[in-house]
Amino acid sequence: MTGADVIDRCQALARMSESADCITRTFCCPAMHDMHRTLRAWMEPAGMRAETDSAGNLRGVYPGQQVDGPWLLIGSHVDTVPDAGAYDGVLGVVLGIAVVQALHGRRLPFGIEVVAFSEEEGVRFGVPFIGSRGLVGTLDEALLARTDAKGISVAQALRDFGVGEAAARREYLGYLEMHIEQGPVLESLDLPLGVVTAIVGQTRAEVRFRGAANHAGTTPMHLRRDAMAAAARWIALVERAARATPGAVATVGSVHTSPGAGNVIAGEVRATLDVRHADDGVREALVARLRSAAEMIAVRRGLQVEWNARLSQAAVACDAILTELLARAAEACGQRAHRLASGAGHDAMIVAAIAPVAMLFLRSPGGISHHPDEAVNAGDVEAALAAGAAFLGELERRYV
Ligand code: HGY
Ligand code: MN
Ligand code: MN
Fold it and tell me: Model-level pTM?
C-alpha cells in the first residue's frame, strides 16, 4: 500500500459518523458497526482473523511461526472527539493493517495482533481508555456501571452493541502505536517522523457548582447564588494557575448550565477539567490547588461544589529498548528519529501495564488535531509504513 492508499482508507472511515455533517464516533455508536465491517474486510485479506472482544475492541489476529510464541500488539483507537479529524487514532489502526498486509502472508517468530480500540477519548462516559482497559483487564465493575448522559451504562452499551467473548489472554512482547503528533514540534523541525519517549500524565474531573436558580430581573445582585458567575471565576483561575506552572496545561473544555435560559440565574454548572504535566507531583499539586480554589469560591458565594474525579493517569515512559529499535528502524529508512514527549494521552499508557510500549509519531500539518482540519502528508505516511515494516525486521532479528 502507498501512503495515499492509507489516507484514502482513513477518509473512507471518516464517513462513518454519528453525525451527518461532521466526524463524531463515540463508544459503541451505530457507526462503529460499519467501522468494524470495513476494518474486517481489510484485515481478512491481509491474513488476519478478526474478532470483537468483550470491550468492543476489534482484534485482527495474524499468527506467528509457533502456536505458543509471543505476540506483538499494534493499534490505536477508532472512537473520536465530537467534530473530529480523520486521523487521530484511526491512522494507527489502518497503518497496523498495512504493515501486516506488507508481509504477504510471511510468518514471523511472533504473532501480530492489530487492535482497533473501541474507546480512548472519554467522550461518551467522561472516562477515557475503556477499550485498552478492557484489553489489559482493568475494565472493572465501577467503570462498567458508569452511565452516559442518557443513563445508559457502559455494560448496557456493550450489550446493545453486541460484543464478543473475552479474547484469549496473550503474552505480548510489545505494543506499537503509530499516531499523528497532534502538535507542532515535528513540523517545526521539518521532520516526517518522531519517536515518543514518554506520555504526560493527566487528571480529568467534573466540577459541579450548585447555587440557586432564580429570576434574572427581580433578584438583586447581592442576594444571588449564581453558579455561572462562580464557575466563570474558577475557570479564569484555572487558566491563571496553569500559566503560572511551567510545563502545565489545564482546560475547561465543556460547561453545562442549568436551567440554561437567558433570563434565569444559573442554578447549577457542570464543568469538565483536564490537567496535564510530565511530572505527576506537579500535576497533583496543581489539581489540589484548583480544587481548593473551587471550594473557596463556592464558600464565599454561598454555593456548594462537588468534585467528581474521572481520571488520574500517571505519566508513562515508553520502553527504552523498543523505542531504540523503533528509532533504528526509522533511521534505516532514511529518517531522523527525533525524540519527543507526548502531551496527548494514548492507549499506550494503559497497555504499558502489561507490555513494553513504543510510539511512532507522524508530523501533524499545522499542528492541528481534535479538529476537522486535522491532516497528514502522504509522504510521511509512507515513511511511517516503511519504519513500521523495518521495526518488524528489528524485532525479528531479536527473536530468532
Ligand atoms: O485527550 C487526549 O489526549 C487524546 O487525544 N485522547
Ligand atoms: Mn484524541
Ligand atoms: Mn488519539
Answer: 0.92
